[in-house]
Amino acid sequence: MGLPATLSALVCDGACLAGTIVEEVRRLSPPAPPRDWSQLLGAIDAVAWRAAVAPTPDGARAALLALLDAWADQPFARAGGRWWVGRASAEVLAGLRADGIAAASWPVRAGGSECWFVTAAAGEAEHDPVPAAVPQARPVRVERDDAARIRALIAAVEEHGPVPVPESAAGRFAELTGMRRSVARLVVSGLVGLPDRDEERALVRKAPYKATPMTAASYERLRARLGGPGRRAVLAAGMPEDPAELWRPGGIEAAVERMAGVWRERLGVLPAVHDEAADALEAELDLPEVWARRLAGGYGAAADATVEAAGWELAATPNGVGVEVRAVPPAGAELPYRTPVGLSLRQIASALVWAWTDRPVGDPAVAGAMALYERLRAELDRPELLVELPGARVEGTAERLAERFGPGRLPVAADRRKEGTARQVTAYDCGALVVCAPGGAAFLRPAAVAGPEVWRRVREAGGLNEALDRIAPLLPGGGLERMMHRAASGAVPAGAYEADPRRSCPELVGQVARELGVGADAAALYLQLATLAAPTDRNVRRWNGWSAGQHTQARTELLGTGRVVEAKRARAGRTLFLPGEWTELKTPHLPLETVKLAPHAVRPLWRNQILSPFGRVLPVAPLHEMFTAAWEREHRP
């Protein structure tokens, strides 16, 4: 009943505003309460855009064209009309009608007293009773002859069919606004959306929009930020003075540029984002697009909801039996619930490792990685920063821990959510290391690890080595810093991959080829299988630039050496493996040879959880170093 009732109400409301029917007839005419058409006053071009463009489903287009056809006959489609639009109580509207003012109105909610309304503006503003009675009413002036333009649009759709929206239009919108290409497709297709959130997310993930899950959620937030008026303004901007221009050469391109201009006014503009890199970051590391923007342009190239930490404190965990590091927000207003505070070291480090080990050298998608590393370095150099060492404990009684690590102490705050539930814990601060008693939970202060001697003393605490191995790649001189220097060295030519041993360590490939009695391609494949956590067939071909035939040839040659085995293993994405034990990591991680866990500083936990430096199984050192270490391990007698 929604469309028939709305069309009936539209016609009757228009007739009432024109003075051809009385209020009682208007009110009794629709078969059911109509939808709120008042919001389209001054923005009917938004409906016209959706009716015109090809991505709109045929059923929805027929409904929109019917609405436009009815609209064209109404007084508010005429040029020069002045109107008031707003919400008011039924009593206020009754008072206006008692003064002889015609008003089209309907309850906002069934049975409610608040109504949306439309009424004509008086000739003289100072004598107009509407703004006095409804101060928040919105004035609308119809500048153009919408009736003629709407009829021209309907005729063009009937004659030419819906106007195609080429991929180049989405590309142009993305270029002008910095939006993801999938978001741009959704906008130029009519700001596609459905009332049901789950249905909308399912729709936008399908062709032709192809939004990833995170992009679908981001699009939902962008539509909410625009709000109804903003969405209508963006779409209305697409309609030219003469609707027939949309079907002429350059018509859609000009429309998209107008839409992008309104989008920028409402939401601003972002630097262009590399879609493929953003999709890969989401799929492989579960990182949102803000990190793709930061990898391309540095940390300041994009912002998210994260608030800079004023400092850090030790606090009791919610269960009251442990201690955790908690970022302290800046003084001031209360932050919204679940606002992230402080830079995520794991996220920024993961993005950097991915940039320097899984992208081609010189890739513009990671041109800002050096600047992003400096941001990470600045965070790690903050003297108040403490990093948890999960899964590690210093053994000893409370008295022994006090003797070894006291007398300096740090306060331990109670958990704000469960005041008074924490047991008494003392945190002993000895500079680079903070140890809690009882229990021996330990925390590292990265800024205090000033050199090898300090690092040696930290390791002598006992029980922390595995956890320290997981934090070591982030520290000065660690694997991440060496990756950064390697990326700046020019050792691998632009366009090639560090993950291709023929480019990153050709001398080692030659040695392996001689030892195994194979060619360089088979030797490179062996090093990749022996070293990397995810040497899937797809990845290997991407890194090495191989065709399927080249890959098959190298695989056949390597299999003949007896150094690898052929098998079918679930979710491995490959058929060649090192002989030995196999670890079935759960999604989102890929399963891998057990021997690779220690070199990647990974310990499997339960379900899909792991302990690792980065949250995923990623390299902890430059790949040429890891290739060498793997060869030495596998070549050991």
State the gist of this model.
The protein has 637 residues and is an alpha+beta fold.
Write structural notes for this entry.
The chain is an alpha+beta fold and 637 residues long. Helix content is 44%, strand content 11%. The chain has a five-stranded antiparallel β-sheet with strand order 7-12-11-10-8, with helices on one face. Strands 2-3-1-4 form a four-stranded antiparallel β-sheet. Strands 6-5-9 form a three-stranded mixed β-sheet, with no helix packed on it. Helix 3 runs antiparallel to helix 4, helix 3 packs parallel to helix 7 and helix 23 crosses helix 25. The model has no long low-confidence stretch (mean pLDDT 93).
What does the main sheet amount to? Answer: 5 strands, antiparallel
Strand segment tally:
18
Class based on secondary structure composition and strand pairing: alpha+beta
Label the overall shape: elongated
Q: How much is the radius of gyration in Å?
A: 32 Å
Helix content: 40-55%
Oligomer category: single chain
**Mean of residue pLDDT?**
93
The main sheet orders its strands as 7-12-11-10-8
User: What's the tally of helices?
Assistant: 26
Low-confidence stretches: none
Strand proportion? 5-15%
Query: Terminal Cα separation, in Å?
Result: 81 Å
Topology:
Blueprint: H1 2-18, H2 23-28, H3 44-52, H4 58-71, E1 82-89, H5 90-98, E2 103-107, E3 114-120, H6 129-133, E4 138-141, H7 146-160, H8 167-177, H9 181-188, H10 197-204, H11 213-237, H12 251-267, H13 275-285, H14 289-297, E5 311-316, E6 323-328, H15 345-357, H16 369-380, E7 387-393, H17 398-405, E8 409-410, E9 412-413, E10 426-429, E11 433-437, E12 441-444, H18 452-459, H19 465-471, H20 479-489, H21 501-504, H22 506-516, H23 520-531, H24 537-544, H25 548-559, E13 565-566, E14 576-577, E15 582-583, E16 592-593, E17 603-604, E18 610-611, H26 623-635
Parallel strand pairs: 5-9
Antiparallel strand pairs: 1-3, 1-4, 2-3, 5-6, 7-12, 8-10, 10-11, 11-12, 13-14, 15-16, 17-18
Helix pairs in contact: 1-4, 3-4, 3-7, 3-11, 4-7, 8-9, 8-12, 9-11, 11-12, 13-14, 15-16, 15-20, 22-23, 23-25, 23-26
